[in-house]
Amino acid sequence: MEYTIILLRHGQSEWNRDDLFCGWVDIPLSDKGKQQARDSARLIAESGLDPKCVFTSKLTRSCQTANIILEQLHREYLDVYRSWTLNERHYGTLQGRSKSDVLQELGKDRYMFIRRAFKGCPPLINPESQYAAIEDSRYEGVPHESLPLGESLEMVTERLLPYFESTIEGVLKEQKTVLIATHGSIMRALVKHLYGISEYDISEINIPNGIPMVIRLDESFKVIGDYTYLDPEVARVEAEKVARQGFKNHS
Ligand SMILES: O=C(O)[C@H](O)COP(=O)(O)O
């Protein structure tokens, strides 16, 4: 028995386009992001993969990405599961700030430590701030102390894995192929966990918007081979652009 996860970072959001830290702020897809979602659907259809259900975060950009794909695949009837544990990492006080301003203020080492080190955590935001983004009816029922005010990739991993192991693995067992439309930090946390990537090596991995990644698992949910992108060349170029965000002439 083999299981397949199609793992996808949402299409470009308006704040990705404008180079702002986004995190839990609920920003929609840009026009380019909507096109990337349509392109993802085409790549999935061409690959012959046939997802039987979908997971998204509670953030609009991941829901929009999944909706566009389901529409393009004529699969709008599929079950969709949404969880806050698939949200982007909370970027604390950096949410809403320009990446190049933060780079200038903190310097390259600190900026890259916060963005990419496994234990790099942004300064926690005041829950009263307009950009804290946790006081929202979509998080009703989530214990208040579970909602983050700033997270490292390590903290993201701690909130993601219980959901992955309890819910996603259970659904995978029944459905065999699932699509997870989510965020860059969730993808980094998941590939680190599944492929046993070191803390050092994960800091070098950047995830492009809107290019499906395929992960194959055996019956005990161990990975088979390496992960692949459905468009490896575009994924490589776009991942490099993500790495350079905030730096001059990054795009
Ligand atoms: O939340 C954000 O700003 C991005 O989606 C992820 O940003 P990063 O690539 O700087 O971690």
Automatic annotation (TrEMBL):
GO BP field: glycolytic process
A Pfam family this chain is assigned to: His_Phos_1
Keyword Isomerase: yes
E.C. code: 5.4.2.11
GO molecular function: phosphoglycerate mutase activity
Top-level EC class: isomerase
Catalytic site: 10, 88
Catalytic function, reaction form: (2R)-2-phosphoglycerate = (2R)-3-phosphoglycerate
Site (Transition state stabilizer): 183
InterPro entries tied to this protein: His_Pase_superF_clade-1 (IPR013078), His_PPase_superfam (IPR029033), PG/BPGM_mutase_AS (IPR001345), Phosphogly_mut1 (IPR005952)
Lineage top rank: taxon: Eukaryota
PROSITE patterns named among the record's database cross-references: PG_MUTASE (PS00175)
Residues reported in the UniProt entry to bind substrate: 9-16, 61, 88-91, 99, 115-116
Pathway: Carbohydrate degradation; glycolysis; pyruvate from D-glyceraldehyde 3-phosphate: step 3/5
Keywords: Glycolysis, Isomerase
Family to which the UniProt record says this protein belongs: Belongs to the phosphoglycerate mutase family. BPG-dependent PGAM subfamily.
Protein name per UniProt: Phosphoglycerate mutase
